[in-house]
Amino acid sequence: MSRPLPAGWPPYRLGSGIDLHTHSTASDGTVDPARIGPLARDAGLSVVALTDHDTTAGWGPAAAALPAGVTLVRGAEISCRWESRAGAGVGVHLLAYLFDPTEPTLAAIRQWLRTARAGRARQIVDRLAAAGFGLDWEQVLTIAARAPVGRPHIARALVEIGVVPDVPTAFASLLRSDSPYYVPKADAPVAETIAAVRRAGGAPVIAHARAARRGPALDDAALQQLAAAGLAGVEVDHPDHTAAERADLRAIAAAHALLITGSSDFHGSNKPANPLGAETTSPAAFDAMVAACSGIPLVAGSG
Ligand code: AMP
Ligand code: ZN
Ligand code: FE
Ligand code: FE
Q: Is it the case that residue 293 has pLDDT exceeding 50?
């Protein structure tokens, strides 16, 4: 008869998880990029990708503070759009891994998106202020701290002035995409952005590719066209996906030889339901993704 193991056993984490989608304060997360590596180690991860929205600003601090045993994948999540022939646009978040940040087309796309984000966030704040919510643009800029401005920064300003109790409540009310205060953000055409990521030696992977709870998603025909245009993979295991959505995506990925990834989409306390390592990528899919890249290397932690 086997003896019961002591409470809290084992006293270590296996440290083998691979999480390919996280955000820091370099965009709209709440954790400093320098803390991503240590938090990944504590969450039992061996690989973590930093994929801030439309920026590479967190790469340096994240790499400099990377602990031994953790490998950093430098990436970004690029705001894109698919224009269907029927004319209805579908928002697409394109994860890009290990791309050369100096490649001019992709660098210009990121710069254009960041500039457009600032104008759009200002419009949302102006609409809220005109409606009597005591919001102040300077306050939002202070919260964003030079990051590309997103709705989570506006949400935190609304929490600070007591309009809503927390960030998720702001998203469920004043900042919803059907709210009168909402202004859509500028997006880059997804096929052209996929081509730019490839030119930069990176791997393009569509984030939360089928999450109906986020609004209209790409259909099978669109994913087939994007696969032909150079898409490397689809993020299947994501907290926003249902079991049925995951099954659909796995079938599409198999049909078009796309890699399957899994990730948490960690945003710190802005998304408490998405802890680091909540979803992970298989070592085989990770190896294939890295093998598809020629832009920049992985960074191995030494701290
Ligand atoms: P934006 O890019 O400015 O339109 O803001 C979208 C960002 O807000 C995305 O990065 C999401 O991760 C985040 N977000 C969307 N919905 C929520 C929510 N319900 N609670 C917290 N963050 C959210
Ligand atoms: Zn985000
Ligand atoms: Fe996203
Ligand atoms: Fe994300």
A: yes
Residues 6+ apart with CB under 8 A from 228: none
Average pLDDT over residues 228-243: 97
Chain-wide mean pLDDT for the chain? 94
Is the minimum distance from the CB of 28 to ligand 1 under 6 angstroms? yes
123, 147 Cβ separation under 8 angstroms:
no
Strand-pairing partners, residue 234, are 206, 260
For residue 150, which atom of ligand 1 is closest to its CA? 3
Distance CA 43, CA 150 (A): 27
Give the model's pLDDT for residue 87. 67
Tokens 């102006």 found at: 126
Q: For 3, how many CA atoms within 13 A lie in the half-sphere containing its CB?
A: 4
Q: Which helix (DSSP H) or strand (DSSP E) does residue 261 occupy?
A: strand 259-262
Give the tokens for residue 207.
Answer: 């984030």
pTM of the predicted model as reported, rounded to 2 decimal places: 0.93
Distance CA 16, CA 300 (A): 14
Tokens linked to 185:
């953000």
At 242, the amino acid letter reads T
Cβ–ligand 1 contact at 27 (below 6 Å)? no
Per-residue confidence at 45, pLDDT binned at 50, 70, 90? very high
CA of 152 to the centre of ligand 1 (A): 6
Per-residue pLDDT of 84-98, as tens digits, reads 766 678 999 999 999
Using a 6 Å cutoff on CB, does residue 103 contact ligand 1? no
CA distance 256 to 249: 11
Residue 13: its pLDDT value, please? 43
